[in-house]
Amino acid sequence: MGYYCYILECNDGSFYTGWSTDPHRRERQHNSGRGARYTRLHLPVRLVYVEEQPSRQAALRREAQLKKLNHQRKKELIQNNNSQ
């Protein structure tokens, strides 16, 4: 089983960061209103960044790191990932 950190871009341009074993399923859950409270208030959301992690613990640590990034740094991370 894989573990992933992901970033969703919300309708208002804000970002939501989380972790999951299936980020595409999680995106569907968020968009159906069964995700986090934050995303329910900022629908629809779009999956813009996914990063595989070796373990659940690593995914949780990386999620915490990503959440500490400011909006501009998250934007740069997403752009750099999409240009590869």
From TrEMBL:
Pfam families membership: GIY-YIG (PF01541)
InterPro entries, per database record: GIY-YIG_endonuc (IPR000305), GIY-YIG_endonuc_sf (IPR035901), UPF0213_domain (IPR050190)
Annotated Gene3D superfamilies: GIY-YIG endonuclease
Segments traversing the membrane: none
Residue ranges of domain GIY-YIG in the record: 1-77
CDD domains: GIY-YIG_UPF0213
PANTHER family noted in UniProt: UPF0213 PROTEIN YHBQ (PTHR34477:SF1)
Family statement drawn from the similarity comment of this UniProt entry: Belongs to the UPF0213 family.
Protein name per its UniProtKB record: Excinuclease ABC subunit C
The organism of origin for this protein: Bellilinea caldifistulae
Lineage, broadest ranks: Bacteria, Bacillati, Chloroflexota, Anaerolineae, Anaerolineales
